[in-house]
Amino acid sequence: MNPNDPLFVTRRQFCTRLGLGLGSIALAQLLPNAVSVARAAAPARAKRVIYLFMSGGPSQQDLFDHKPRLRELNGQELPAEVRGQQRLTGMSGNQAVLPLAGSHFDFAQHGRSGAWFSSLLPHLAGVADDLCFIKSMWTEAINHDPAMTFFQTGSQIAGRPSIGSWVSYGLGTMNENLPSFVVLVTKKPTDQPLYARLWGNGFLDSRFQGVRFSSGRDPVFYLTNPDGVCGTGRRALLDRMAALNRVQFDAELDPEIESRIAQYEMAYRMQTSVPEVTDLGREPESVRQLYGPDVEKPGTFAANCLLARRLAEKDVRFIQLYHPGWDHHGNLPRGIRTLAREVDQPCAALITDLKQRGLLDDTLVVWGGEFGRTAYSQGKLTQETYGRDHHPRCFTMWLAGAGVKAGFTYGRTDDFSYNLLDRDGNRLEPSKDHYTPGAVHVHDLHATLLERLGLDHTRLTHAYQGRNFRLTDVHGHVVRDLLT
Known about the structure:
By secondary structure, the protein is α/β, with parallel strands linked by helices. The chain folds into two domains: 38-219 and 298-482, Alkaline Phosphatase, subunit A (3-Layer(aba) Sandwich); 222-277. The protein contains twelve helices and 17 strands. The chain has helices at residues 11-34, 68-72, 80-83, 122-125, 144-153, 163-171, 231-252, 255-277, 285-291, 301-313, 332-356, 442-452; strands at residues 48-55, 107-110, 115-118, 131-138, 181-185, 211-213, 318-324, 363-368, 372-373, 390-391, 395-400, 408-410, 412-413, 420-421, 440-441, 461-464, 467-470. Strands 1, 4, 5, 6, 7, 8, 11, 12 and 15 form a nine-stranded mixed beta sheet that branches.
């Protein structure tokens, strides 16, 4: 048979077209139930997520996890029974001594909940009763790249879809003129790169990848028309390109071709919607003052927090903010002062702003890094300074909004913030293979976030290379104690 004959159909094309034909017959019956495949039994409390990722690993002992005993024992060797068999990184594992380092910062309780805050965080302390603290986060990853990849994709190995992509895949978009998943990265010097794969779509359709907005005249690269190209000309070009792409689709039946058509159309609509939503000058002076002086500087964390609130108002489904610089192996007191000042007022302002607009009820805010820091000093401990190495065994995160318990603290750590404890004060040895009350693994956190969005993490799957994949792999439990 002549391959150039228009009636010639390859075996692959025949099978694909047959599947598409049968699929279209059943479509009317499947559509009402399509979303419910991944729906949880409980209705969704969150319509959107704002995830504030503190890249580098914030020190829990210097921010939220008050440890007076650690300060009392400052300079003494880390007790062998506290360390146990836990591994250390190569950066401090060969130190002759591991001297305990008490925090240089004072702590106080705030709000009716009595939550502990370092003196570094006076503004966040003012919204203490809106926050839900998890003091018992833990992870297996001990180095930055696998640990960040784990939190963002559910796997320490690169290549899986990011959490924002999974949410977009499971729930779709709530608007027609902006991406469902937007990424904002603080513009600042950093030794730790933030790779685009952290917000990538992996093996999911490219429609679900995160779209990074940058500071400056063009928030999305290559979105504006070049000189000499008008809107009418751009529209005509896109129409002709779509027609050609559909010819290619009819020949190859590759769904990515249709995704590319949809992305070109989204980019065309974004030429109007993006400049409008990123224009922070439209905000009243009182709102800009709420976020602090840095809000006037494009690309700062403060500016990105205000932009996140504007994106939430436009019903962007998943908004991811990255703020790097928390990797304080040395001279921690000076470094963490700077980082805390950068995030304290903007984070508190975001909570306040969402709340006064009625958006906090259905917006889930997440704050945290990829792991915590050690109770002992990496390098020499002096009266003026200390450093802290990576510590995956226990660290602190907080949530707010969307039906998580406000003014609530979950989980306990020992006197050094080195091990997890149960309610009776006994050491916990958690495992991701089974649920351990009092401990929250990365997969547990992901399962809980998806539950707030109305998604069952065990049913939100995608078939790839012969098996069904999901964000929580084969693990994860919803932590009901965090929820109202």
